[in-house]
Amino acid sequence: MVMQALAGAVGPIMISLAGLIGLQLARDPALATLPVAGYNIGVAVAMLPVAWLLARLGRRVTYLLGALLCSGAGLLAAAAIVGEQFWLFAAAAAVAGFYTACAQNYRFAAADLAAAGQQPRAISKVMLGGLAAAVIGPQLVIYSQAALPGAPYAGSFVALAGLALLAVPVIARLQVPPAAATDSAAPGRPLLAIVRTPVFLVGALCGVCSYGLMAFVMTAAPLAMVGHGHAVNDATLGIQWHVLAMFAPSFFSGRWIERYGKVPITGLGLLLLAAAGLAALSGLQVVHFWGSLVLLGLGWNLSFVGATAIIAGSYRPAERAKVQAANDFLVFATVAVASLSAGYLLAENSWQQLNQIILPVVAAVVLVLVSCRRAVAASAGESLRTVVGED
């Protein structure tokens, strides 16, 4: 839980500040969100190297490498801000993504450490770390952004470097079994055959849509708030409430899926994403931004957990690793594109026009989800409690 709290704080810090710093350093305002996109690209690109390192060096060494790289990236980002080097800052943000990619494996380590029958409880404790991260990251920004006179926000990245270093002694004491190379000795189907199945396609589409739209709006929100006269602290607190809304429902969303089904809960999450867009279109006061971000977080949780459950029904045990890796790559590659395009669209259009995009996208995905509901219902997947971490 402590490791997740420390690593999970990187995302809120990046989302809160990277776009604002990009706007401050970039010659072209359309490139303002490139550092945020760089961070998400770093996560996506690091997925496969992290998996390779986990298998060969073990979890503890890989996690330590991630924390140390993030610490170095934080210092490099601070130096880039002081030196007004836009591209160096974007590169530092991408390196920090490696740490987040490592953190994606924490829940699996917790499950491996837990006694038989206690895996869901162990994963739930890791999820609690996500809630703590939602508070730690934004509060760190608020209290450290002016720590270095003459270099706004540079202090927050020095603080980020220190936060990553705090994880080092925790990770050093970690005793975990090696990550399993495979879940079964039985041969699996070719990846191409799996990704062509309706269950994988609809699960991946819902996951890409939920995470992509969430990143699209979340990346632009701090820029839009500051651009409409709101304080940086208000924008940062908006991200804090958003991240809290992202993680808080995880303790009961899986139970809802078990009771009502994957398709209805995934659909409900997608509709909440549309509601977030409508809330953003209703006004430009702080309450409208915050309300939109909270709905965005809630919608992301239900739709992404539902999409994960759908994906879990598309593969056999021997196929788990390659299917999960393929799905995660699609998701984070989409997030990177969404983060970059958010800055361009915000610069060329407006916050309202950006949110108008949500509605037709959600409508199209809901239509596909409903049309494939029988295939999803017939799929046999992993236990939902293991997927989302409930007890």
TrEMBL record:
Q: Does the keyword Magnesium apply?
A: no
- Kindly state which keywords UniProt assigns to this record, in alphabetical order: Membrane, Transmembrane, Transmembrane helix
Query: InterPro entries, per this entry?
Result: MFS, MFS_trans_sf
> Gene3D superfamilies under this entry?
MFS general substrate transporter like domains
Kindly give the SUPFAM superfamilies that the UniProt entry links to this protein: MFS general substrate transporter
- Key word Transmembrane present: yes
What is one Pfam family matched by this protein? MFS_1
Regions that span the bilayer: 36-54, 61-81, 87-106, 126-146, 152-172, 193-219, 239-257, 269-287, 293-313, 325-345, 357-376
Q: Name one GO molecular function term.
A: transmembrane transporter activity
Source organism superkingdom: Bacteria
> What is the designated name of this protein?
MFS transporter
Which source organism does the UniProt entry give? Answer: Gammaproteobacteria bacterium LSUCC0057
Q: What is the lineage of its organism?
A: Bacteria, Pseudomonadati, Pseudomonadota, Gammaproteobacteria, Cellvibrionales
